[in-house]
TrEMBL record:
This is Transposase IS110-like N-terminal domain-containing protein. Coiled coil: none annotated. InterPro entries: Transp_IS110-like_N. It comes from the Bacteria. GO terms for biological process: DNA transposition. GO terms for molecular function: DNA binding; transposase activity. Residues 10-109 form the Transposase IS110-like N-terminal domain. It holds the Pfam family DEDD_Tnp_IS110. It comes from Thermosinus carboxydivorans Nor1.
Amino acid sequence: MFPMPSPLFVGIDVSSQDNVVCCLTLQEEKRPLCRFSVANNRPGILEFQDRIVSLVHKHGFDQVLFGLEHTGCYSTHVAMYLQHHLSFDCPETKVYVFNPSLIRDFNEITLPRRSQE
């Protein structure tokens, strides 16, 4: 029998100024392993890489799965760096770029509605 994969899920909220990151595991899907922000520039993406590599080494993840919402040129640059230019010392990495309407529709279905005041 094969061992279960140990993935790290990394959600990235991309904007023109910074990238807000939330890291989750299968065991703690409701409580983030960590959250942090980095500048949306080359030094920021290299800091991001260092922090993810540190988590991979500390927890022994064998997969890193990145997810981000398509926000035009900002998310395209981040996705390209993740896919082609950065290394995370992990056997498998995947990058998923989601249509913003999918995220919006998912949130409408799953998140509690704010009460009307």
